Amino acid sequence: MSTNTTNTLTERYVQEVVRRIPADQRDDIADELRTTIADTVEAHGSADARSAEREVLTEMGDPIRQAARYAGRPLALIGPDYYPAYMRLLTVLLSTVLPAVTIGVMVLDIADNSSLGSAISSGIGTLLMVGSQMIAWLTLVFALVERGRTREGLTAMTTKAWTPDDLPEERQKDTTSVRACVSMAWHALLAGAIVWQHVTEPYRADGADRNGQHLQILDPGLWSGWIWPVLAGLMALVIVELVRIASRGWTVRLACCYAAAQAVFSLPLVWIVYRQMFFNQAFLTDVNKDWTTPNALYNAFAFVVLLSGAASVVRRFRAARG
Question: How far is the C-alpha of 96 from the C-alpha of 148, rounded, in Å?
Fold first, then answer.
């Protein structure tokens, strides 16, 4: 067999590997692969170069696996380290949060339309839409965490030799996963409720000037600006809690991310409540009738939100520091 044919087989293998890795690494990895293959073929000491090369390439395995190893990308969407946590959290969401949301939508639909058929239709739609969103977003978050962890781990392995000093500290039993799931579900439901009341206008006024009119509970003017950081903060809190569950514990970096997300959520909300821009004035007028909500109540609500957010951040940092 000619050397040209043998090199062609090697080149085909190299090209299949390098086309799946970042462009700035391709030349170095291609040279490394060619050298490795040539040295291994030579070490076989076989008179049939073609057979030796084929045997070497077979031992090296699928070029897709080689590319994944060089690029630091896992072949599985969610690896075995995070898959149990992913399944546990998905089970919790689909068995508790999803039914609660579905039942809530059906009850509100019955109260609004007094039609069982309409409620069942709304329930099925909610079940499919919210369920698919839960699965999709949870899978996306875990896949991103898996890829970030894998890339970091492979980089560390290639920069220094492993020693027993690299072993992580003995992991304590995680007893806070349930609280993390509850916190994540609460923030997700709160964000969903804010959007839901804006879309459906669930409150039906019975006052003389608004008889039968549907109203939003929160001030519609918030959607021109202030509500967006609140929603962004809530979704960031959900993501942080998901990462915390996947990593099975708090770290200082993760606690800092939580603090930032909590600030994005809490500070605008405190300002909205303090300035009495939280509720729809038409809704308050219809509910309160002749009674006026005292300023002290708004101030107390704002203080509770601020204190609760600060306390939750302190708890996360304490957990991170053991």
Answer: 29
Task: Measure the CA–CA gap between 123 and 102, rounded to whole angstroms.
Answer: 5
Query: And the tokens for 308?
Result: 């609760």
Q: How far apart are CA 239 and CA 204, in angstroms?
A: 34
State pLDDT tens for residues 111-134.
666 566 777 777 788 888 888 888
Smallest Cα–Cα separation from 246: which of 82, 66, 130, 60? 82
CA distance 83 to 138: 12
Q: Where are the beta strands (DSSP E) in the chain?
A: 203-204, 214-215
> What's the whole-model pTM score?
0.50
Return the closest-CA partner of residue 17 out of 32, 36, 30: 30
Tokens 């019955």 identify what position?
110
Helices (H) then strands (E): counts for the chain: 12, 2
Instruction: Compute CA distances 2 → 16, 181, 292, whole Å.
Output: 22, 63, 95
The answer to whether the beta carbons of residues 120 and 106 sit under 8 Å apart is yes
